[in-house]
Amino acid sequence: MRLNLVNRLTRYLFIFLGLVFSQALMGQDIYEKYNIYRNPVKVFLNKFSFTLTTGYSANTYDHKLTGVYFFQDRTNQYILPNTEVLGSTFTGYTNWLNRPELGTETSLENEFDVPFDYLANPVNNPALGGAEFLVDTDTTDFGFKGTSSGIPILLSIHFNIADFRIGGGFSYEKQFVRELNPISYADQVRAYQPNFRSTRYTKLFGVVGYRFYQFWRYDFVAELQVGRINAGKQFDSSVITRGTYTNFGISIENNWSEYFRVVIRPSFDFKKYTIDIPGGASVSHRYPSFFIQAGISINIPDIPRSPMKSDHVQLKHVYTNPRTGQMMEVRGQPIWKRQNPKVGENHRRLWRYKWRNKKKLNPY
Amino acid sequence: MQKFCVGALLVIVIACSKDDVTLTDVDTTIIAWLDTMNVDSATADASGIYYYATTENPTGIAATAGSVVSIYYTLRDLSGNVIASHLRSDGDSLVLKQGVSAVYPVGLDLGLAFMREGETFNIIIPPALGYQDLTSGAIAPNMISLLEVEIARVQNEVSVYAQETADITNYITSENLNDTIANPLNSVQSFASGVAYKRIVKGFGPFAVNGETVILSYTASFLSNTTFDSKNNFQFILGSTEPRLLIQGFEFGLSIMAPNERALIIVPSSQGYRESALIIPRSITADLIEDDIIPDYVQTVPPYTPMVFDVTRFD
Lengths: 364, 315
Fold this sequence. Notes:
The complex is a heterodimer of chains A (364) and B (315).
Chain A: H1 2-25, H2 29-33, E1 36-37, H3 40-45, E2 48-64, E3 68-72, E4 77-81, E5 89-90, E6 93-94, E7 101-102, E8 106-107, E9 133-136, E10 143-161, E11 164-176, E12 181-182, E13 198-215, E14 218-231, E15 240-242, E16 245-255, E17 260-270, E18 272-277, E19 281-286, E20 289-299, E21 317-320, E22 327-330
Parallel strand pairs in A: 1-22
Antiparallel strand pairs in A: 2-10, 2-19, 2-20, 3-4, 3-9, 5-8, 6-7, 10-11, 10-12, 11-13, 13-14, 14-16, 15-18, 16-17, 17-20, 18-19, 21-22
Chain B: H1 2-36, E1 43-44, E2 50-55, E3 68-77, E4 82-86, E5 94-97, E6 103-104, H2 106-112, E7 120-125, E8 145-155, H3 157-174, E9 189-190, E10 196-201, E11 213-222, E12 227-237, H4 248-255, E13 262-267, E14 278-279, H5 285-290, H6 297-300, E15 307-313
Parallel strand pairs in B: 6-14
Antiparallel strand pairs in B: 1-2, 2-7, 3-4, 3-5, 3-8, 7-8, 9-10, 10-13, 11-12, 11-15, 13-15
């Protein structure tokens, strides 16, 4: 079974490399015909796009508690599998978002009834509010939900085949976690306070995409990422089961040149994890995210800039090395500018036509 | 910007004037009622209550804050409908501690501060200092209350506690608790705090110390032998404030109780629920507990009431 899988992967690898090399070798004819040199490594690398983006993420932590008792007193919130019989005390687990820990033993008795101590100035005493709350979560719809923010950084590489692309990447996200509000009994139950302020997530993913629309210099590419996600040490990975995550986004790419693009990428993550609570219960957490990221995408140029300082040719052109007589193709533009500009293209806009000056009839 | 400022000013003016209208509505209603009743001696207190005397006693003891006041009352709405009452014909007066937020409605506590022993006042209480939006029995939401109150007695707390000590002594005598033949095991131990301890079944083992979990069963009653509470396998940590301490007298009694011992712990109110709280009318007590306005023990333990706990410690 495993051998079949290896064979299949090997076959796919060869098909992929064949596609890559065939792409790299396409159009070599003219270079061979006139013996124009191009660095084959750069030609090969030129077929890959490297993308680096960063931005903002909004992450919603959402869980429903089932199969547990939820108990709240003045200072703590606990859950306990409801397979256990409740006595007059309650010792439950805290931090069921990330790292379940056994809490302190707490009395379930009514703390303002006999035989507990009297209360000075009893009428309208503020201490009376927010006392104990106990619910079997199988008898009601109960859980917590809250939105956190984060800063993601994504680095990916993909290979373009016509309008399709395939690749992979790595993502790092610093996430700042906020409190989670109860989805019911909001007048009696306090918000869940995570025991950490921030955490990190790393992702390793594969990506496929399809350019479904073009508008002038803009490409619109639907992308699908599938991969593994790992959380920071704030999460106890020994009791957490995380599946693969899926991200769907639209990459809007402004092609400054064939080598350089500015990318804006809104996307959604769909992901969840399950955390085991000692005693047999578990809590399933969904934590979908919305990302808005911006960055750049480049292809490493297959040809260098002209080495001659006096060479002011604007287009791609052939240059002959005066010492070796070897012809090589060179660029006349930096990578972020259109490589074969028509007349007037690539001329920089003067300062006098920018910002507040652009509306003036006579800037100077 | 100018439009925004004008708009904001208008909103503020409307908001302010709305509050004024609400306040004036209540005051206007009360003042109109006083006119109708031909009362021109009423005083409007800054708190919002109105009061006037129907029986004066300038030489009586003033009901100052902290004093223990015994009262009779009749609660009406401004239409004259009697909602509740406790009169001399109903038995002993009701006891409360004045000026320590141990009385509901709050307006009564405020009104008593102007009275003396032997006086009868009519106190008119606006909803905010009365029953607010409570709906219970004949009490309508935002009702203006007319409370006719007679102070039968004003005491200090020390004399009330002294009376309790005498009551406990009488109880011990009447129940023959010092008779070790009729009521074994030991005679009653009395402590300076007022707590009395009668061992019924001797236990063995060390006394519980602070931080130790204690399991017990108890039945609680008043000196009249009326049972008001009981619990089996009640478990708590001695001396722990989680969730809260037990009443002092009960916790003290348990600290001198051996495992598997049974005893009566007689707790004076000074070691128990002291002034508790007086709720007028008593029928709304459960509603107030549900609304977190008063603690639950007010439902069962009246002000200045000694308690007897028949306790068995298990662990």
